[in-house]
Amino acid sequence: MTDLNDRTFSFELFPPKTDEGMDKLKTTVQRLNAVNPRYFSCTYGAGGSTRERTFATVDWLREQDIDTAPHLACIGSEKNEIRDIVGHYIDKGINRLVALRGDMPSGMGRTGLGTFRYANELVTFLREEYGDRFTIEVAAYPEFHPQARNARADLENFKRKVEAGADAAITQYFYSAEAYFWFVEECQRMQIEVPIVAGIMPISNYSQLARFSDACGAEIPRWIRKRLEGFGDDKESIRSFGHDVVLELCQRLLDGGTPGLHFYTMNQSAPTLKLWRELGLPEAG
Ligand code: FAD
């Protein structure tokens, strides 16, 4: 089995809306960076809705000399806007991108969808324009993307994205290890050979998690949902049970050979660091 040191462990952030949020994020990053993750990624709102805030976060990370993978969502943007954004990242010495279609902010309708309809078109463009300048990550969906025609079509679309030049994939979060292992096996049968890193969402706020999960099609299994609901406002019990569930999930994924874990930190350090330490993941040497 692959040594833990050969796997990729990374942290995802979102760009804060306020100066106060940015100050808090800086403290979070300092704490998380102490364990020496492979890189931090930072989300980007489709249609450029977080462009300046994503830049501010990414630029600050680069000033700390932290390996950074900005997300780049193409829907709602023209080719030249994508060129501008990538140019900015090249100036900052970035060599990794998470290439996505993104979701149009609600209310923007179907007008102004931009040059690229799907993430595979963005990956093709990035490879044509920039060659091997970037390591490109794409998204994968073990429980399938909510807009996919069916599971098979979603897998074929994923394969198309990989064939366009993606180096690796990060999954949407999930709480069923089986869903992940079935997905990885099916990808192997389809000769999709890139590493598929498991996306991990720590559980610390149930109502927020339930909202996200409805929107992105990630399933919270009934037994987990029922227990979390049963804790009501008891945040400590939610955190403690959520930690145990996610810890066991991560351990099964690592034992089953996942090439890495990508933590959706939600800009908080404590839940992710507790998992990291109890899993015995490698700390800064
Ligand atoms: P695609 O791979 O383009 O797939 C979208 C849908 O279209 C799927 O149903 C797929 O089956 C279908 N499809 C794909 N190609 C074709 C084709 N050629 N013909 C027909 N159908 C096709 N969103 C953001 O806005 N900003 C972020 O920063 C962000 N970060 C994310 C990070 C990760 C790790 C993940 C898993 C998701 C992230 N998302 C983000 C959410 C993501 O943008 C949404 O899930 C979005 O709806 C799909 O993006 P995608 O890149 O997976 O799209």
From TrEMBL:
<dbReference type="Pfam" id="PF02219">
    <property type="entry name" value="MTHFR"/>
</dbReference>
<comment type="similarity">
    <text>Belongs to the methylenetetrahydrofolate reductase family.</text>
</comment>
<dbReference type="InterPro" id="IPR004620">
    <property type="entry name" value="MTHF_reductase_bac"/>
</dbReference>
<protein>
    <recommendedName>
        <fullName>Methylenetetrahydrofolate reductase</fullName>
        <ecNumber>1.5.1.54</ecNumber>
    </recommendedName>
</protein>
<comment type="pathway">
    <text>One-carbon metabolism; tetrahydrofolate interconversion.</text>
</comment>
<keyword id="KW-0285">Flavoprotein</keyword>
<dbReference type="GO" id="GO:0005829">
    <property type="term" value="C:cytosol"/>
</dbReference>
<keyword id="KW-0486">Methionine biosynthesis</keyword>
<comment type="pathway">
    <text>Amino-acid biosynthesis; L-methionine biosynthesis via de novo pathway.</text>
</comment>
<dbReference type="GO" id="GO:0009086">
    <property type="term" value="P:methionine biosynthetic process"/>
</dbReference>
<keyword id="KW-0520">NAD</keyword>
<dbReference type="InterPro" id="IPR029041">
    <property type="entry name" value="FAD-linked_oxidoreductase-like"/>
</dbReference>
<keyword id="KW-0028">Amino-acid biosynthesis</keyword>
<dbReference type="GO" id="GO:0106312">
    <property type="term" value="F:methylenetetrahydrofolate reductase (NADH) activity"/>
</dbReference>
<dbReference type="GO" id="GO:0035999">
    <property type="term" value="P:tetrahydrofolate interconversion"/>
</dbReference>
<dbReference type="GO" id="GO:0071949">
    <property type="term" value="F:FAD binding"/>
</dbReference>
<keyword id="KW-0274">FAD</keyword>
<keyword id="KW-0560">Oxidoreductase</keyword>
<dbReference type="InterPro" id="IPR003171">
    <property type="entry name" value="Mehydrof_redctse-like"/>
</dbReference>
